[in-house]
Write a structure and sequence with these properties.
With 842 residues, the protein is α+β, with helices and mostly antiparallel strands. The protein folds into 5 domains: 156 residues, Beta-Lactamase; 143 residues, GAF domain (Beta-Lactamase, 2-Layer Sandwich); 137 residues, GAF domain (Beta-Lactamase, 2-Layer Sandwich), CATH 3.30.450; 102 residues, Beta-Lactamase, CATH 3.30.450.20; 229 residues, Histidine kinase-like ATPase, C-terminal domain (Heat Shock Protein 90, 2-Layer Sandwich). The chain is built from 19 helices and 31 strands. Helix 14 packs antiparallel against helix 15 and helix 18 runs antiparallel to helix 19. The chain is elongated, with a radius of gyration of 54 Å.
């Protein structure tokens, strides 16, 4: 490891040919009268030859090196005949077409004593080396070591000069030396310190152009202020594309950069090109070149990159400072402008001085998207108010994209384009990050990225000044509008308050905690409580204790931003009686979208419930009228059984067995009659019963019994498939039986000539119960189907139907929280689907 470190400190591996080493190799060949002489250095995998006489290979793998034995036995190696030496008799060089038979070498040592290479002579015939020649070979090996030390001292001196240059450059940058002067000085110093023939600094410009800012040794090849396409600088363009420094040791052998490039025209053979970095884009390129072939080291590249970084920082700081100074000066001048037009004249006057422009303008767009010149100077003098028609123009490019437009020597002529041979820059004036106008500047010379950044900074100040002026005008206008709006709002508030007070529904508003803030006259009338009694009370206090938790939960849901539909919750009034109220609650939103309260509108359902009850009872009586004959028939059968068996028993009083049989049949018939009467009473019972746990299958079974006669009379076959795994529901059995009765009677009337009625129950996907009635009747036409649940709608002849059966059924199912739907394919019967939610598990 120490030997390799000593070798690498010499920085000799893979360097270009050097005359002193070539001279020592030639001297070794002549002194030893040998056709071959080599100076080689051995690293971890090869022997690399710095100088060669009569030998074409530049290196050998370490396992083919004849000198590798010197690393373990650091004494001169003498092979009079390698073919007869068992150590080397099979070596590839010994067995080649031009075999080496004689070989002698002496070790080359570093300054700290490590063997790092060898100087060797060789011949194609066996021979001896005299003691004097051996001494000469060892002396030449020492000369190579001394030459390496001289190179190291020269390198140290060069590094010190490089460090001094870096320090001096930093001091000048901190002292605020102008950029052009600093760049010119640095280019001259780099050329002398690195002892190169050519040097330049290129500044990158918009539109893929480059401008020489300083050069050394080029004559007229790189003329300052003469912008050229970046593609003309092949090596610089390749460096920028790769993002890494590029080192060329021999341009004449380089295939990537061959051709009619300015480097070859100026005799350049070797060089280094690297990027002068900046933020957000590179400032430019630094290049050094030599007319002689030269091996530039990693240290050289690192030194150049350090110089480039110091220069980039100096450029960045000076440009930021200059931009800030210009912005501050413009801001100070703008504060003195009294009017909007004077402000714009001051802006263009300052930009004319700072940017050395030949013309400038402020172009603004209005609310309708039209653009026109608000103020002009130079070639725009007198153009105030001139419209800029939409199209492919720089101003419209900026207005639509918000991105700057930069053109060096633009080759187009449009309404807002500078004349030929001038540069143009258009920068967006923005408000809330949206373009409201364009700062348009034509330059007499090319535009740099610094010019662009400065113009963007000035544009921000200009946009702020214009926005302040606009805000001032808007403030005056808004104040006048606000005065008018205040009067209008007060009028609307009075109108709204009158509307709420005169509403027939209960209207209440609350704060975010649910405490009542407003209480209209309808609320006083329905509840019996006055506004003074209720303001400040919590809304859920209006509900019965059993319903307060639900009202509190609804308020919480609304406050969290969710919505809530209509719900029925009774209200407790001054009489302590439940008043049925249908509530619709909505969140009150603030301007920022937050919830600031709740408005609750409640409708008194007491009268509606009374009317519904009468209507339901009337519909029941109508259904009972339809079922009357069937019920009579159903009761007549068991009564006949009772009468016949009673008569037989009286006639056979002496026969106990006959008496027992008759009594049993009388008992069965009596139970049958009682069951029919119970079902009839359940059906006819008023609807004021509360909600209970209901078994749907039991309700259907009792309905089938009531309607058994009608089903037989219509020659209809009933096919009931009732699932035993369905959940129970919460509801009113009598009301649900009324629904099932209405649906079955409608199906029987649709099958006048007989048919099939299928009834099924099953658990639904929504964890409830689905009841399906499907008949084979005439069906319902598509035109009539949407109206079948409308009150008083019927397709029967006058006097044969009230049109209330399905409407009431729809209302009952809704009250149970369920749905009722129907489908009727043309001529294929009709199917009713009833879904009811399962009762909560206690």
């Amino acid at each position: 490891m120490g030997r390799l470190q000593a070798l690498y400190r010499c920085a000799i591996i893979d360097t270009v040919s050097e005359a002193p080493f070539n001279d020592l190799a030639s001297l070794a060949a002549s002194s030893c009268q040998a056709p071959i002489a080599l100076i080689g250095f051995i690293d971890d995998h090869r022997e690399w030859f710095k100088a060669q006489v009569g030998f074409d290979l530049s290196e050998l793998p370490i396992n083919q090196s004849l000198d590798v034995s010197l690393l373990t036995l650091p004494e001169p190696l003498i092979l009079s005949d390698a073919l007869s030496d068992p150590r080397f008799s099979t070596h590839p060089l010994v067995l080649s077409e031009s075999p080496i038979r004689f070989y002698a070498s002496a070790p080359i040592r570093s300054s700290d004593g490590f063997v790092i290479g060898a100087i060797a002579v060789a011949d194609y015939t066996p021979r001896e080396l005299s003691p004097q020649q051996q001494q000469t070979l060892s002396t030449l090996a020492n000369q190579v070591g001394a030459l390496l030390e001289l190179r190291a001292l020269h390198q140290i001196a060069g590094e010190r000069r490089q460090q001094a240059l870096l320090i001096d450059l930093g001091r000048r940058a901190l002292g605020g030396e102008p950029i052009n002067s600093l760049v010119s000085w640095m280019v001259d110093q780099v050329a002398h310190v690195l002892e190169v023939d050519r040097c330049y600094v290129l500044e990158l410009l918009p539109n893929n152009k480059a401008l020489p800012r300083a050069s050394f040794g080029w004559g007229t090849a790189y003329s300052p202020n003469n912008a050229m396409p970046l593609s003309d600088y092949l090596l610089a363009a390749a460096t920028l594309q790769s993002g890494q420094p590029i080192v060329i040791n021999s341009l004449s052998h380089e295939t990537c950069f061959g051709g009619p490039e300015i480097l070859q025209l100026n005799g350049v053979e070797s060089g280094v090109s690297l990027i002068i970095r900046g933020d957000p884009r590179p400032y430019g390129m630094l290049g050094i070149y030599s007319v002689q072939q030269r091996n530039f080291t990693r240290a050289d590249v690192a030194f150049l990159q350090a110089l480039a970084d110091v220069l980039a920082e100096a450029i960045s700081q000076q440009q930021r400072r200059q931009s800030l100074d210009e912005v501050v000066n413009l801001s100070r001048i703008l504060r003195q402008a009294a009017t909007r037009s004077e402000m714009m004249r001051v802006i263009l006057s300052r930009i004319h001085a700072v940017c050395h422009s030949v013309g400038s303008a402020i172009i603004l767009s209005d609310a309708d998207g039209r653009a026109s010149v608000a103020q002009g100077r130079g070639i725009w003098e007198g153009a105030t108010g001139k419209p800029i028609p939409p199209g492919d123009s720089p101003s419209w490019h900026v207005l639509l994209s918000g991105q700057p437009f930069l053109g060096n020597t633009p080759d187009f002529q449009l309404d807002d384009t500078a004349p030929q041979d001038r540069a143009l820059a258009c920068v967006a004036l923005k408000y809330n990050d949206q373009p409201i106008g364009v700062l348009w500047v034509a330059y007499a010379s090319v535009i740099s990225y610094y010019d662009q950044n400065l113009l963007v900074a000035l544009a921000d100040t200009v946009a702020s000044a214009i926005n302040r002026s606009n805000l001032h005008d808007q403030t005056i206008r808004l104040y006048q509008e606000r005065q008018q709006l205040t009067k209008e709002v007060r009028r609307i508030e009075r109108h709204l308050a009158s509307t709420v007070e005169s509403a027939i529904d209960l209207v209440v508003s609350t704060d975010t905690e649910g405490r009542i803030m407003t209480w209209n006259r309808a609320a006083e009338r329905i509840s019996g409580f006055t506004r003074e009694q209720m303001v400040g009370q919590h809304l859920y206090n209006l509900c019965a204790p059993a319903h307060r938790a639900m009202m509190e939960e609804m308020i919480k849901i609304l406050m969290e931003g969710a919505s809530f539909g209509q719900i029925e919750l009774p209200l407790i009034g001054t009489t302590h009686q439940d008043v049925p109220i249908s509530w619709r609650l909505s969140a009150i939103q603030s301007d920022t979208g937050g919830t600031v309260g709740i408005v609750a509108v409640g409708r008194d359902l007491a009268e509606q419930r009374h009317l519904e009850s009468q209507l339901f009872q009337a519909a029941k009586m109508a259904s009972m009228g339809v079922m009357a004959s069937g019920i009579g028939h159903e009761l007549r059968n068991p009564l006949g059984v009772i009468s016949a068996n009673a008569q037989l028993a009286l006639e056979r009083l002496s026969d106990p067995e006959i008496i027992r049989t008759c009594l049993q049949q009388i008992h069965v018939a009596t139970k049958r009659s009682s069951l029919i009467i119970d079902n009839l009473l359940t059906f006819a019972r008023p609807r004021n019963e509360g909600s209970q746990i209901v078994d749907i299958n039991e309700v259907l079974a009792s309905t089938f019994m009531l309607l058994d006669y009608q089903i037989q009379q219509h020659r209809t076959k009933l096919n009931a498939t009732l699932s035993h795994s369905i959940p129970k529901v919460a509801g009113n059995a009598a009301l649900l039986q009324q629904v099932f009765t209405n649906v079955i009677l409608n199906a029987l009337q649709a099958m006048e000539g007989g048919g099939m009625l299928n009834v099924t129950t099953q658990a639904s996907d929504e964890l409830g119960v689905e009841i399906v009635f499907s008949d084979t009747g005439c069906g319902i036409s598509p035109e009539v189907l949407p109206q079948i649940f409308d009150p008083f709608f019927t397709t029967r002849p006058l006097g044969q139907g009230t049109g209330l059966g399905l409407a009431i059924s729809y209302s009952i199912i809704q009250q149970h929280g369920g749905t009722i739907e129907t489908s009727s394919p043309s001529g294929e019967g009709c199917t009713f689907y009833i879904c009811l939610p399962a009762a909560p598990v206690s």
